[in-house]
Fold:
Amino acid sequence: PDVLKVPLSALFRQGARWAVFVADGGKAVLREADIGHENGLEAEVTSGLEVGDRIVLHPGDRVAHGSRLEERD
Structure:
């Protein structure tokens, strides 16, 4: 019943694994994640993220581990 999920637009491949960027102290932190079910819009995260983590949506090629982030509404 309780599933942690993220938009597919936040996920990208890091080698053979899935990854996301998490906002931590105004910086992007790379996190590998394990994905379960997905429906074309969202994916179930089985490990690598916690409830409440703030993720970066649509991380373009200018975002890297340690990049400074600016929050947008």
Summary: The longest strand covers residues 27-38. The two ends are 29 Å apart (CA to CA). The chain has no helices and five strands. The chain has a mean pLDDT of 95.
